[in-house]
Amino acid sequence: MGELRRKAGVAKRRLLNAKAELFPSDESYDGKFTREIGPSDYTIDKNPATKLIHARLDDAALTAIESAIGAADDEVDLPVPPGAAPKRVSLNEHWSAATGIERMRLDLVLGAYLEVPELLDATGLSTAQPPSEIHAMSHTPFAAGGGFYQADMIAGALESVGTPIAEGQRVLDFGCSSGRVARALAAAYPEAKILGCDPNGPAVEWAAANLPMAEFSKSENDPPLSYPDSHFDAVFGVSIWSHYSERLALKWYDEMHRVIKPGGHLISTTHGPESVAFYAEQGLRTTNQLSEILDAMYRSGYWYAAEFGEAGDWGVVNSDWGTSFVSAEWMLDNLRPKWQVAEYASGRNERNQDVYVLRKPVS
After folding, report:
1. Same domain, yes or no, for 318 and 173?
2. How far is CA 207 from each of CA 31, 181, 214, 235, 241, rounded to the nearest angstrom?
3. Taking a C-beta distance cutoff of 8 angstroms, is the pair 353, 343 a contact?
4. CA neighbours within 13 Å on the CB side: how many for 74?
5. Is 355 exposed, middle or buried (0-12, 13-18, 19+ CB in 10 A)?
6. Model pTM above 0.85
7. Which of 153, 231, 271, 317 stands 20 to 30 A from 14 (CA)?
8. Which of these three, 140, 164, 195, is where a domain ends?
9. Which tens digit of pLDDT belongs to each residue from 140-149?
């Protein structure tokens, strides 16, 4: 473990030493938006999606939500690291302990789960939840209404590079599954057109049938998408490029370049050195494997394993879909100058995955 931590520390120093290269001067792009965000700077995320939706709730709606949560007898298991004692709490206990933005999110999530009429009328949130046989990141009450954390991360990243989601824009959730992020963004920004695509047929079919606030379609494992050139103002993929082989990652980055407008942005989350530290602390991967991953990032910048095997991932069978880790140097070497790096945030996604905001040059 000591050797692994030493390697992780070396990886972070390499990223800092590469900072000047990661954010070069470029007269064709406004330099004030080209920057790195570290873990101590996460307050830059203003949680715009959650706050936009929550602001529609008046005192009567908030009182109705509190009353419904207080009357509920549901209990849920909170996530804990492997080997830790289970932690089970009531919805009211969890809600009462929350403050700030977490309380706001729980107002929306639990209000949707408990089908509070005042909340549904004010926000346009849907109570539909995918059944257990349909892929979703969570099937618990905390998944009701949508993925507000991720919606805040996407909307906040676009705001921080100077292009907030606006009326008439087209925004694609690439790898949308059953629509958890798309539905939250559509509720927050009804004036924009939110779309989603995914190769998981049953998941997108469920989303298309149950979430009319966004538009969903099935995509294939390999490019191209069915959309025309320069169709989207922004595209985001949450925990998508953290699963591609190097071959397929590059093909899909090229396809994103095709479908995004000049001046538009791609938000891509990837595993990096911060993820190695995260998995080590949580005990989710062995020390030997994490050491192997770091060594691969040193040597070539990319580590990939087809970890889903012949069974596939929820019915999606693809030898180029497994788990990947990528260094910032690899991103620079392979994506520039076709893409400009508008923002890089180490560990921004749940203190685990790195978040890159890539800009398609205007010319």
Report:
1. yes
2. 39, 11, 9, 18, 22
3. no
4. 16
5. buried
6. yes
7. 153
8. 140
9. 999 999 999 9
